[in-house]
Amino acid sequence: MRTSTPALADRQEAHFLASLRAQAPAPERHALWLGLVAVAFTAVQLALVVPGLGLGWDETVYVSQSGPDATRAFFSAPRARGISYLVTPVTAVTDSVTVLRIYLALLAGGALFLALWVWRTLLPAPVLALAGGLFASLWITLFYGPQVMPNLWVAFAALATVGCFLRAVEAEPGRDPRALLGLGLGIACVALLRPGDAAWLGLPLVLAALVVPRWRRPLPVAVLGSGAVLGAAQWLVEAHLSYGGVLARLDRAGEIQGGLGWNLAVDDQVRALAGRSLCRPCAIGWEHPVTALWFLLLPLPLIAGLVVAARLRLSAPVLLATVTGLSVAVPYLFLIDYAAPRFLLPAYALLALPVALCLVRLCTRPSRWRPLLAGLVVVGLLGHVAVQYGVLRDAVDRSGRAAREIAGVAAELRRLGVRPPCVVSGHDAVRVAYRAGCASRQLTGHDGSITPAGLREAADRHAVAVLVAGDRRPPSVARTWTEHPLPDRSVSPDYRAYVAP
């Protein structure tokens, strides 16, 4: 009697999964694969990103929070202080940007390893290693690895949180207490870094605990909720002390972000993948389509990965990773009217798992087409990495050039007598002020933190400069001050300073 084709296929799938899991003792195998990925991730950051990378505008705001009160930049409603806490061990002892970059690059490598290590009992080592490699090879991941920005750390914490949740609900009660601890710490870290992301991450996890019968346990859900509240506690307290309540802070945050509501930003994200750190307003053309090819093709391996997971009886971890990844992407694709590639890093980290499962299966499934499929996958990945490297190189070059220009402007201000204690206002004042050792205070806009009278009063006590670019006129309070040309900047033509007498 001949064996039926479905039965044969089932045996092949079982053999494939067993071979992935049994090639070496699991802990050692996972440690080797994941360790290599984490080391490579760190090494590429240190070699290609850290040298010459200057502090960006948002970074300067976060870094300044751990400095003297006189130089702290205005901290607006949408921000959370988690990333400032992360870099405080370095900023408290040195103002070296290079030391800060190295610290974050090393920390990012370790965080990638730990986030993937959580999944070692859920998915085979080759799948996790490839998922880590796919995520780590994105120019966005490499670019923000050594930067003082929260999104990549949210991605690491989100990946670990989902893994810990799965381990907590799949294990017998009390058999995996470390999973519960990791679940609470993971969601708390996300909430500390970006409270809104914690809500979008926790929502599908809570729903999964309610919908899946064997996952209906009160303890993991309680840990998830308490961890989120604990992580967001500082933000909530600050909302009451500085904004008049949580709702008032949320309203202000929404206003700063252009209003939250139905806004299709998928096309903005696609255009921003050409290397723009922020696309607001995103009125640029689609200049380099090849940089977004992987994004447009992503649904294909994602769906195929879910199909493979179903055949290999890995639906639970892969499906939950997919759902949570899509959930954390929702606000940045559909609720705001601008784009920044870093916003989707948590989604990419989670969606890398089903994609990696699909690619591993293509390369290892017994078939006469296997060599051809494996070759196509390898060629495709090499091309993908080449494109990512090109975008990364341009982004790093732009950042380095901006840092050198900012340093030149700060040096010129010091030559003009604008030295600590001092105040700088106007165009790109945050970065210039921090580099010059001054406070940045804005008269208008989202970061408005001083009135014209207050700026005039500050000029009676300290050196004060107002920066203006292009054909803009200085504010009325500075129009009688002495005008001085500043070194040219690529993004700020006719840059000049109005210095108080």
What are its keywords?
single chain; 501 residues; mainly alpha; five-stranded mixed β-sheet; 20 helices; 5 strands
Characterize the structure shown.
This protein is mostly helical. Among the domains are: 258-364, no CATH class; 403-499. It contains 20 helices and five strands. It has a five-stranded mixed β-sheet with strand order 2-1-3-5-4, with helices on both faces. Helix 17 packs antiparallel against helix 18. The longest helix has 46 residues, at 370-415. The radius of gyration is 25 Å and the shape is globular. The protein starts with a helix and ends with a strand. The mean pLDDT is 91.
- Oligomer designation: single chain
Spatial order of the strands forming the largest sheet: 2-1-3-5-4
Tally of DSSP β-strands: 5
Mean of residue pLDDT values? 91
Amount of helix: 55-70%
Q: Tell me the major beta sheet.
A: 5 strands, mixed
Topology summary:
Elements: H1 5-22, H2 26-49, H3 57-64, H4 82-91, H5 97-117, H6 125-136, H7 139-144, H8 151-170, H9 177-193, H10 195-211, H11 218-242, H12 246-256, H13 266-272, H14 293-297, H15 299-311, H16 315-334, H17 345-364, H18 370-415, E1 422-426, H19 429-436, E2 439-440, H20 452-461, E3 463-468, E4 482-485, E5 496-499
Parallel strand pairs: 1-2, 1-3
Antiparallel strand pairs: 3-5, 4-5
Helix pairs in contact: 2-5, 2-6, 5-6, 5-8, 6-17, 8-9, 8-10, 8-16, 8-17, 9-10, 9-11, 10-11, 10-16, 11-12, 15-16, 15-17, 16-17, 17-18, 18-19
